[in-house]
Amino acid sequence: MSQRVTFTVNGYERTVELEGWERLIDVLRETLSLTGTKRGCDDASCGACVVVIDGEAKKSCVYPAKKIDGKEVLTIEGMADGMTLHPIQQALIDSGAVQCGYCIPGIVMELYALFNKKPDASEEEVVDALSLHLCRCTGYEAILEGALLARERMAAASVK
Amino acid sequence: MKFKYVGKSIPRPDAVNKATGKVRFLDDIRIPGMLHAAFLRPEYAHAKILSIDTSGAETMPGVRKVVTGKDISFRYGDNIMDRIPLAINKVRYIGEPVAAVVAETLHQARQAVKKIKAEYEPLPVYVDARDALKEGAALIHEESGEFDHLPGLEPVAGTNIANRYVLEKGDVEKGFGEADVILEGEFNYPFGSCAALEPHGSVAWFHEDGSIETWSSSICPFIVREDLARVYGLPISKVRVHIPEVGGCFGYKSDVTIEQTVAYVASFVPGHPVKWVATRKEDLLSTLIGHGIRTIMKIGAKKDGTLTAMKTTLLHSTGAAVDTGIHVLIASTHNSTGAYEFPNCYLEGISVYTNTPPVGAYRGYGHQESQFATERMMDLLARKLEMDPFELREKNYLGPGKFTSLGEKLWKTNGDVKKCAGIVREIVFSKPKAVNEDDKYYYGRGFAALMKSPKGAPFSSKGCYLKFNVDGSVTINMGGAEVGQGLRTVVSQVAAEVLKIAPERISVYTEIDTQFSPWEWQTIGSMFTIQGGRAVIRAAEKAIDKLKGIASQALRVDVDMLEYGGDYIFLRSDPSVRVSVPDVARGYTYDDGVTIGEVVQTTADARLPRYSNPDKKGMGTMGVTYTFGAQACEIRIEKETGKIFIDHFVSCFDVGRVINPKQIRGQVAGGVMMAIGATLYEELKFKEDGKAVNPHFSKYGFPTIKEAPGKQTIEFVETPGEIGPFGARGIGEHPVIGVAPSILNAIYDATGIDFYDIPITEDKMKKALAEKKD
C-alpha cells in the first residue's frame, strides 16, 4: 500500500511516497539523499541516526516514516548557517571530539535538542543524553568537554 | 630542537566536513545504475550444504541476479589462501555468506534473500581451539596443507592446526634449571569486535572494458587491488580501488575480506556497480572478529627476581579462515615476554581452525592478549617471591643493550620503559591507599608495563607525492587511510615544519584512489606517523633541493650558497639576493618568457630498516621501532553489586616526539576506553553449536560514556627515535595493551581475588565476592 507523507526537513517542505515498511532514516538517506544521518547498528542502540523531530531527539532508524506526516525534522545538514557552523559543531571540533566523525552528526542533534529545551542542562543531564550515543574513537572525554563548551558558548551568545 | 609546527595542537583539516555530516563514507556513495546486494547466512556453524534452491528469490520484484558459490574456482588470502568469497560445499561459521541476491534496491534484495531455501547436514562444531585440537576432531578444512601461503608458515595437514610458530631463544630448560621459583598460569582473552561505528562495506563494479572499479571502507586499498587483479586475471593497473572516509577501523577493516565477496557477486552483473554494507549483526559475525587467544605461561626466576626463562603456549581459536589472524598470533607469541628481557625462551603459538568468524587484526595486534598474562604473572610472581612488584619489574625491564625475544638488540632510541613506569608509579602509588574498604566499596590500585613491536613486512613502505603550486602552497597525496587517527594533521604538521610554511598552506589528500595515490603497503601497525612522516620529510627535502636548483640558475650562484626559507630562496651571505618560491615552483621564467628548470613535484617513500622474515628459530628483526609504556588504575568495587568503577586511569608512553598534543591524547583516551570495554563489559559469545549469543550492540556490551573512567591522566616521555619524523614513534594501538592486567591487578589489590580471564562483568565480580565470603 503506497502512502504519501508531507513534512519539513531543515525548513523545506518535502513530500514522499512510501511503501509502508520504511523508517525515517530510509527516507532521509535514500529518498532525500540527506546522508549526514548515519546508520551504525540494527537495534537502536548506537545513536548515530539521531535527528530532531518537533524539538525532540529521536532515533530515525526505528521511527516509522509514515508517522512523520506534518512534522518538523532537523538533520545535521540543517545545522550550519552558510559558512558558519552551529556552536555545537564548532565546540566539538575545538575540544578534539571529532576523530572518525561517524558518531558526530547524531551527537550534534542530541545536544541541539537538549540545549534548546534546557540551555542550563546540568553535567549529569548532558552525560545522560550522551550515554545514548556510542563512540569507539574518543573514550568520550573530548565529547563531554565539547558538549559543555557548547553549552557555555550558546548561553553566552543566547544561540538556539 | 625548536619546532614551529610540530608539538602544537594544530586543528584537524577534516574536522569541519565531518562535523557537518558532509564527508562521504562508503554507505553514502550513490552511483547511477547502482544495484544492492544482500546475503543469506547459514543456520549452522558447520554443515554440508545439501542444496540451495534460489528459484523463489529469482522471481521477486527488482531482483537482477541470485548468486551461489557452486562455480567458484579460486581462493584468496593475504597470508594463507584459505578464504572463499561464498560458501562452496559446506559452511564453516555462522556468519558465512551462502548465497547473494542482487536487486535494484536494498529492501528488494533483503526480501528476496528470505525466499532462498538451503538444506544442510550438520557437522561437529568447534568453538574453542582446545576442542578443534582433540584427537579425531572433524576437519574444518579438509584441504588444509594444500593452500598457498607466505614462506615460513606451517599448516599441519590432516589436523585443524593452521600454523605453528615457535620461537627459541637461548636454552629454556637450562633457564628453568637456574630458577629458584617457577610459576605457571593460564589466561584467556575472549572474542570481541573492533566494532567501529561505521560498519564495513564495499562497492564493486565490473566495467564493460574489462577493468574493475571498487570502493571499500578498507585500510588496504593496494592489497585489495592486487588481490582482485590476481583473481580476475587482470594487470594490477586495470583495477581501481577507492577508499572514501572510513568511520573507524581499529584493525578489522584490514587485509582482503568482504571485498572479494562483493566483487564476486558483482561479476555476475557486469556494467553495474553493486553495493553491500554490513548490518551490525553482519559486521559482528561476517567481517573479522578479534582476540580468542588463550595464553598458557610459565616463568622462572631467581630469588632476587632475575628472570631466567619463559615458556608460553598460545592457543588461538582463529576461526574458519586463519588468513588474517595468523600474524596476530605470531605477534602475540613473540611479544608475550612483554617489556622484559628473558634470556631463555620457548614461545609457541598455534593457530587453530574453529567454527567461529575469522579472527583478524584488532587494535593491539596480539599484544594485549599475551601481555595480559605477562603482567598478571609479574604481580603473581612478585607475591610468590615476596618481593615488591615494581622492584621485580625494574630488575628485568628491556632497555639499551638488552635483547628482545626475537634477538633484536635495543638502542637508547627505542625508548625508556623505566621512566614511563616511574612516572605512572609516582602518580598512582606515591602515597599509601587512603582506604582499603568502606561500607560500600573496596578500593584497589593496579599496574602494568607494556611493550609493542611494529607489524610490518619486509617490503612494507609508504609513499608520498608532494607538489608545489605556483602560489607557493603545497599539495600532498599519500596512500594512508584516515580512519579517525588524525594522520592528515600529522602529514600537514611534518610537512609544514620541513617546508617552513604554515599548515594552512598545505592541502592534504582526502580520499584514496589507487589511480592517483602513491603506493602504500597498508595503514596498519601504528606505523603511519613513523613511516609516512618519514616519507613526507624525504619528499619535502627533495622539493627543497629542486627549488634551490632552479633558484641557483635564476640567481646565477652555486646551489650550496643558497638557503631555503619557506617564502624565498636567498643567498646565505646576502639575503636580499633572493627569488620567491612561487617564481621557481614551475621552473623560472625570464622576462622574455623563456622558462628553465622543472616543475617542483617530488615522490618519496620510507620503509622500516632491515625488517626481516623470521628465521628457523622464529627470530628476526622488526625494524627496531618498539614503543614502551606503563599504565595504572585506581578502582572502586561496589560490594553489593560487584560493579567496578575506574576512578582514575593513568598512561605514560615513550612516544619519542609528540607531534600533536590534542590528537595524541585523543588516541590514548580512546584506546584506554576500548580496552576497558574488553576488560569489563564486552564479549562476542558463541554457543556450543557455534550460534551467536549477542550479535547486536544492545547485548554486546559496548561501553557508553557512563562506563568511562572518572579521570584519565595521560603523560608522555620523549626519547627521540631514530626512524620516525623528529623522533616520533607509534602510539595508535599501545593504549589498549596494559589495561586489562592493570585492572585485574587492582581487583586483587582491592579484594584479594585473582582473575585469569576477562571480561570481569558485574555478575562475575558479584559472584566472586560472594564465594570469597563463603
Note the gap between the termini of chain A. Answer: 40 Å
- Which sheet architecture does the biggest sheet of chain A show? 5 strands, mixed
Query: Main β-sheet of chain B: number of strands, strand sense, barrel status?
Result: 8 strands, mixed
The structure class of chain A reads alpha+beta
Provide the CATH superfamily of the largest domain in chain B: Aldehyde oxidase/xanthine dehydrogenase, molybdopterin binding domain
Instruction: Determine the fraction of residues in helical runs of chain B and give it as a percent range.
Output: 25-40%
Tell me the total number of β-strands of chain B.
Answer: 29
- CATH classification class of the largest domain in chain A: Alpha Beta
Oligomer: heterodimer
Overall radius of gyration of chain B: 27 Å
Strand order of the largest sheet of chain A: 2-1-5-3-4
Task: Tell me what portion of residues of chain B adopts beta-strand conformation.
Answer: 15-25%
The CATH topology of the largest domain in chain B is Aldehyde Oxidoreductase, domain 4
Tally of DSSP helical segments of chain B: 19
Strand order of the largest sheet of chain B: 3-5-1-12-9-10-11-20
Regions of chain A with pLDDT < 50 over 5+ consecutive residues?
none
| Gyration radius of chain A, rounded | 15 Å
Strand content of chain A: 15-25%
Q: What can you tell me about this protein's structure?
A:
The complex is a heterodimer of chains A (160) and B (774). By secondary structure, chain A is an alpha+beta fold. In chain A, 34% of the residues lie in helices and 16% in strands. An eight-stranded mixed sheet of chain B has the order 3-5-1-12-9-10-11-20. A five-stranded mixed sheet of chain B has the order 7-15-14-13-8. Chain B has a four-stranded mixed sheet with strand order 16-27-28-29, with helices on both faces. Classes of the chains: A alpha+beta (160), B alpha+beta (774). At the A-B interface, helix 1, helix 2, helix 3 and helix 5 of A face helix 1 and helix 16 of B.
